[in-house]
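To close the section, here is one more complete example, presented without commentary so you can practise reading it yourself. The ligand is arginine.
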Amino acid sequence: MAEPIHILMCAPDHYDVDYVINPWMEGNIHKSSRDRAVKQWSKLNHVLNDLAKVDLVQGQLGVPDMVFTANAGLVLGDNVVLSRFFHPERQGEEPYFKKWFEEKGFNVFELPKDLPFEGAGDALLDREGRWLWAGYGFRSELDSHPYIAKCLDIEVLSLRLIDDRFYHLDTCFCPLTDGYLLYYPEAFDSYSNHVIEKRVPAEKRIAIAEADAINFACNTVNVQHTVVMNKASDNLKQRLGDVGFSVIETPLTEFLKAGGAAKCLTLRINEPVLPDVHASTPVESRVIQMVGHLLDAGIMNRVLDLVVDNGGSFKVLNFNLGIERQSTSAADVRISAPDHEVMEEIMSQLIEIGVVAPSDEVSNARSETCEQTGVAPDDFYVTNIYPTEVRIQDQWIRVQKQRMDGAIVIGDGPEGTTAQCKILRDLEQGDRVVVGVEGIRTMRKTANRELKANDEFSFMAAGVSSERRVELVVEQIAWELRQIRDRGGKVVVTAGPVVIHTGGAKHLSSLIRDGYIQGLLGGNAIAVHDIEQSLMGTSLGVDMQKGTPVRGGHRHHLKVINTVRRYGSIHQSVEQGVITQGIMYECVKHNVPFALAGSIRDDGPLPDTQMDLIKAQEEYAQLLEGTDMILMLSTMLHSIGVGNMTPAGVKMVCVDINPAVVTKLSDRGSVESIGIVTDVGLFLSLLVNQLDKLTSPYQTI
Ligand code: ARG
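Output:
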C-alpha cells in the first residue's frame, strides 16, 4: 500500500469575501457567514481526516483567500513551484506559503516576476502521474507552463479556459483514480477539448452538465475511490457510482461565495514521482517584429487580440513609440502557443497583417514537392491578397500573380528563382510548393490615422448610413472614376439582376457609354433581365419590390432567352438590330468585354453564359487583369469570386442594400475597400449625376 495521501489545509479564521476577483464574488462582499464557513470547513476537514493525513498552515489577517490552499503552489515529489498570483489582492499570501514549504524542507521554485501561475488551482496531475494538466486563460500565463515542466521534470499539457466562472482549472476539471476524468467541456476552447479527448479515452471521460458544474462538482477531492465535493446531482452520483466511486457530499456554500469549494480548500503535498516521466511541453514561442502606425491604426490591438483569440499568449518585449504624428512605432513581441499547430495558425494570420520575424531569426521558406496534380502538400501556405515575398536561399523573392486562397509555387526561370500563386487545381505534380510559415512576409501599405479618418465608409458597413454620407462617398467615387478614365485606367463592374430591378440599368448603360467601364462580370440573370427590359420596354417579370420575377413574366424572360439563342449570341442580337438599348447593348457597341458565369439556377441559358465554371473563373480572372477599381453592385457570389482573384491595391466599391453583404465583402482588412449600404439603383443614379456635375461647366443645382 502506497504512502497515505497528505493534504494541506488552512482554517478559515480570517476568511471573508473582501474583494471581487472572480464572478462568484460579485455581490457577495461580506456576505458569507464566518460561523457557517467554519462549520462547513470543519466538516470537510473531518471527512478528509478519515481519508488522508491533513496538515495545516496558519491563516493570516488581510489575506482572506488563504483558505484556498490549492493556490499555494504545485507540489511534485520534494519540489514545489510557488504561486505567483495574478491579482494583487492575493499576492500577500505568497510569503506565508513560501515560509511553510521551506520549513517543511521542500525545494522551492519561484517563477520569474510578472509570470502569473496559481499553483494546483491551475495545474492538476493525472492521477497515474503520467503528466500534468495545466490551465491558462484567466489566472495562469501560458508561458509559465514550460517553466513548470522544467522545474518539476514532467510533461505539461496546456488547456485554455474560456468561461470566466471557471477561471481556475480545478473549478471545471478533475483527474480521478484509474485514469477517469471528471470535467465540464464547455469551460474549454475546442483545441483544448481536442487535447483532452486525445489523452483520455471516451469511456474514462465523465463530462458533466452546467447545473453540476456551477455547484462546483468538478472541484472534488479524490482519494482513491472516494470523491468529496460540495454537491452532485443524482445523475452524476449514479454515473460516478457506476465506475466505482463513492461520493461524499459536504456543503461548502460559504466558500462558493468566493468562487471555491472542496478541492480549492486543499493541496496535495505528497505527489509521487514516476521514474520514467520527464519534462516536455508542446508550448512554442517565437518573437515577431512589427513596424508601422501600431497604435493609431490599431495594428497592435489587432495583433494581440488575434493571438489571444487563437489560444495563444504574448509578452511585449520592446515598444518604441513613434512620438510625432507621422512617425511609426516598432515593437518586438514574444508569442506563445500551446502547440505547433496553433502557432502555425497564429503565424499565418500574423503574416497577413504584415508581421515579420526579427532579421536575425529569419529562415528560408520551406517547400515540398507536389506529389499529385491538383493537390498541394498538407501543410501548404495559403495565400492572401497582399503583396507577398518568400525567402529562398537567403533572398526575398516577390510572389507573382498574387491572389487569395492559392499556394505559392517556386520555380526556376531564366532570371533565377521565381515564385507565383497557383490555385489548387492548377498545381502540377513536381511543383515545389511553399509549406509552413517560415520565410514568408507580406507588405502592407502603412495605414495611418489620416487614411482611417478619411475612410468615410466603415460607418456604412456598420449599417448606419445617412443619405448625406452616401452622397459624400459617391462624390469621391465619381472623382476617382473620372481620374481613372482620363488616365486610361481600367474599371470593372460585377453586377447582379437587382441593378435592373431597381431601375439602375439606364445609369449603368450611360456609364458604359461614357467610357467609365472597361469590363462587365455577372451571371446569366443580369444579362437576361437587362435584355428583357430593353426588348419589352419594361422591367417585365420583375416584382419591383421583391426583385423577383412574377408568374406571368416568366414567359417573357424565356422568350428573351429564346430570341438571343435564335440569333446565336448577344453580339449577334445587337448587330442584327434586335437589342437596341441597355447594358449589354452598350457593352457590345463600345467594345466593353463581358463574362457571364453560369449557375445551377440559370434558365436557358443565354448562349453567352459560360456554364463550365472553371472556364468562367478563367474568363473572370483574365478580364480582371490590370484593373484599378471594381464596382460590386448587388451580387454577393460574383463579388466574392471576384474578390478572391484580386490582389490588394485594387480599389473595391461594394454596394448592397444588405449590410451583412457589404460587411462581408468590404472587410478585406485593406484600406482600399469601401462598403456602401444603399439601394443600388439609387447609388447608380447619384453616381451618374455626380459625374455629370464633374463634366458640365455649368453649376447644376
Ligand atoms: N477567491 C479566490 C480567487 O478568486 C478563490 C480561489 C479558489 N481556488 C481554486 N483553486 N479554484 O482566487
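Once you have examined the C-alpha cells, check your reading against these statements. Residues 448-464 have pLDDT under 50 and may be disordered. The longest strand covers residues 284-292.
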